[in-house]
Amino acid sequence: MPTGTLNTAILVRRCAPEYNRSAAATAKVGNRVTALRNFLKQAPLFSGLSDAEIDASAKDFVPNRFRQGETIFHQGDAGQLLYLIEAGQVRIFVLGEEGQETSVVLYGAGDIFGELAVIDGLPRSAGAVAMEETIVLTLNRDRFREQLRRTPQLALNFMKALSVRVRYSTQQLGSLAVLDVPGRLARKLLELAQTYGVAEPEGVRIAMALTQTDLASLIGATRESINKALAAFRRQGYILLRRHQVTIVDPDALREIGS
Predict the structure, then answer these.
(1) What is the pTM of this model?
(2) How far apart are alpha carbons 27 and 233 in whole angstroms?
């Protein structure tokens, strides 16, 4: 083999690992971009947007990962970011005067949160904590406002999301005013099943680990009253309880209780 050819062969062999690593990194980035684009297409906030509009929005998001139980932000923090859940579950809560937590709502993949502070610039009105290993996509307030100005459909979707939140808050206040603990619990279980339910032979399992403390906080009740109501539902065959997960066996019975 001529010397020049030999030197070239040696150089190729030496560069091959580096080239392979670079190619793998490029492929990984490409896969991530594709996965993000596909995820955003399914998220309600981006419903009806063109591929070009989604791609333009996607480049502004920054992924962040949180461990189970890790705080995402505290009540009173400055609100500079909008959050979009890519995977996992998040609990939104407020603190009482004596520091006790009251859960407001639970969010899952495709849901946004932290939107109020991004709009009005005021401190966070609630805190947020990851209920499990969670990946969120964050979007800076200025970039989000620019996206809203640039993409009318995105602005419309955002207004729809805010409208849903207002209606939900109104319904929650109505439940507190007119329903007892079993009624509020029955309604909350049905609501969670509709959002996070997985159909199984025995019924609809709420795919979320919920402690009695979590449920009590969500409906404004004590842990003891939740324990009593859950035990009654289980005795009557309305639900199954296994490893902090609830399976609804008789949704009609729960609807009757929660009506």
Answers:
(1) 0.72
(2) 52
